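Hmm, what's this shape?
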Amino acid sequence: MTAVLHHPGRIGADRPGSAPGVPERPASPFPPSQRRRRLSLSGLAWRQVRRAPATICYLAAVWVAGLVTGSIAHGPPRWLSGHVGAGLPSLGHGYWWTPLSAGLWASGLGGYLAVTVLGLLILGPAEHRMGVTRTFTTLLACQAAGLLLAAGLIKLAGLTPEPWLGSLTGETAVGALSGVLGVGFALSCTLTPLWRRRLRLLLTVAVTISALYIGHLEQVAQACGALAGLVTGALTSGRARPWAGLRASRHEVRVLVGVLVAVPALGGMLAALAAHPGGPMSLFSFLLATPGPGPHALAAVCPHAQLALACRGLREQQLYAQWPGVAVRAAPALLLLLTADGLRRGRRLAWWLAAVINLTVLGAGLWAACAVGSGPSVHLAGNDAETRTILLAGEAMLLPVVTLIALLATRHRFDQIAGRRAARKLAATVTTALGVTCGAFLLLGSLLRDHFSPRPEFGVLAQDLPMRFLAGRLSGDRFLPADLAGRLLYVWVFWLFWIVVLAALTAFFLHTRADRDAGAARRARAILTRGGSTLSYMSTWPGNQYWVSPDGRAAIAYRAIATVAVTVGGPYGDPAALDSAITGFARFCEHRSLQPCLYSVTAQARAVTQQLGWKSVQIAEDTLLPLARLQFAGKKWQDVRTALNKAAKEGITAEWWSYPQAPPELVSQIHQISDKWMADKGLPEMGFTLGGLDELDDPDIRCLIAVDADRKVHGITSWMPVYASGRPVGWTLDFMRRNTEPGAFRGVMEFLIATAALTFREEGARFVSLSGAPLARLDRGEQPCALQRLLDRIADTMEPVYGFQSLLAFKAKFQPVYQPLYLTFPDPAALGSIATAIGRAYLPHLTSRQALRLLTKLRWPHTNRGPVQQRESNHTRYAMTRWSPAG
């Protein structure tokens, strides 16, 4: 297909009107981001302080009390703790004020830091949302209720043989976390359902881990204070009842089960860091993390010959308390955390791993209880050490039992499997790592047995091999390395094994199964002709996956990157099916454990997502040029008329070509122009919604090329069809390149766009789209949200590199109708993953050198900037040599 259009001369008449159904043009084409007030970091910090003055005063009082009494390092001194600390001893002496006075001190520097951080994160927002009076009334009530309830539970436990709470009878505690956590649960009742569940889940996990693994009076009081805050908030807010919303989505179930599986790993690490853990689960924390022995233990045991076996065990523990032995010891905990993340993603392999690990922990607990119970000194009653160990083992086994029940009850929720290629790669990696590790330990250990003490035989090496993978948790007292070579075989080999296994599992869980339906692209392209947005044709580009509605009336193109499904525009197909397609795609993403992200969608799609409770932010400004009464008349069209008239004088013509059928001499010049454009940028060509030369190789895309009498190419534009009812009703500008050599026609882009618009008008098209101007928006008089202000700041920083405002200023020459394009998402907490996924979609092959080059070109906040209007005119001169307009 080819046609040659010559400029007909000076054009001008009436002012163009608006196309039917297209909104009127706003008065100003430039966004308010360039005129916003700046706020320094000190000013921002002072503003936050002014929003929570009572919280700052309370935290200052806590620190002042600690400094005056010398309690910062190790808590209140003995003479003071009995009068301000709460517990059965102080309450028994009639010190009724201790449940409240305990909130002015902490048990040490870590406690003071924890109160400060959580106070700022919880009390500050609560003061802003709940008010000062309600916040601190809740704080005092939960502080007192938490310590009093904990004292009551300990008193009841003392009447029974229960070993954990009964052992806390003589303890007193200080700390304000009971009240702070209670305020956190009360604050959750004022939040939206999404953030309410998240805050409660986070606080519940923290309270559960500290109580089950640390298990002192302070941690028990924190759990009781949190419960009091939940009840208080539910009774006073009237918004969120504990029994509301019991039906959880598939994603929520996966998250809850994943958190349940992660609790032992996090608790084991916390117990290993604590000085004297006393919770019921601390008994089996050695399965996940164990601190090394102190020098006093070695000095007390090792000099005695009859304690040689115990000394060897302590030295082995010391070996695994140093690097890299500590990494080998922490590997099972990391494996459990990785399994929890796999459960969050709905992976079937993660479900099996969680079940096997919890069965192993349960078996170890039963073995420990039976081993202690088989001793001759065990009694069924009393508080001797053996009975206490058995009872603690029974309490500790409760968590793996509950976890196994939850896994069995929700097994159908974890049905996501990776492709066969990923599974084979994982199996091959783990098998190879296991074989190499076992072979190295057995064969090299036999050859280098003199580097161990005592000297092991091959059979002893084989018996000890399983314990090396677990850092000798259950045995390993047969021999120890005597020098560096022995340590390399004893520790370093297994450290490398765990690195390979954990890395392979991480890659496996992060792997997103590609859509193998070969016919999906064909069906989606057939659906495209029924209707869509100005960006819908980009769904046909390579690299996209497709979701097609069950009735086949609508489709959505997306790219699954990590855990995010970034759509290529909005849904397309039958107009009546587009709204329901969004909810169907959201359910599809939930089933696949993907985070849906509708990218560059119109206001109509945004309205549907708002009804679903999603958030949105404007990311671009689409520019539409109605063609019904288009005529380039008036002063505002001066640049366009000048380009058309100048092209006619210089003999520049515009030729329509299908790129696959274009003459070789034109194609060669287009390649040279594009390569030079890429070389000048010094950055890789962007993709996703920005078309390149590869996307031109499509018979349905029309290319308009500006050539002179010598067949020299001065510029090229490509146009994608916008369908409705099976035929093109509009065209979207995509690929733009102009010749930047000396003597080339400077107004070639204005000439090509104006010529294309006139051609499409004669063919009966209703509009053309100059495509979206990324990170640029109009001033519509709306107050921007915090996220919108952040995007404005990013756009301002990246302006020297990509010229977002310059691109919008160039398109303003054609007097377009502006329509905002939005990014909509259901989960604000996933914005980091969404931003990463979008960045990888646009620049999947960005190198570190190119990234550094990009950073050096950015405009940072301290850079001196001139007026907006002057900067726009300077950038407009060369913006079109740097940016393709789509996106």
Observations:
- Confidence is low (pLDDT under 50) at residues 1-41, 239-246, 376-383, 862-887.
- The longest helix spans residues 420-447.
- The two ends are 28 Å apart (CA to CA).
- DSSP finds 33 helices and 17 strands in the chain.
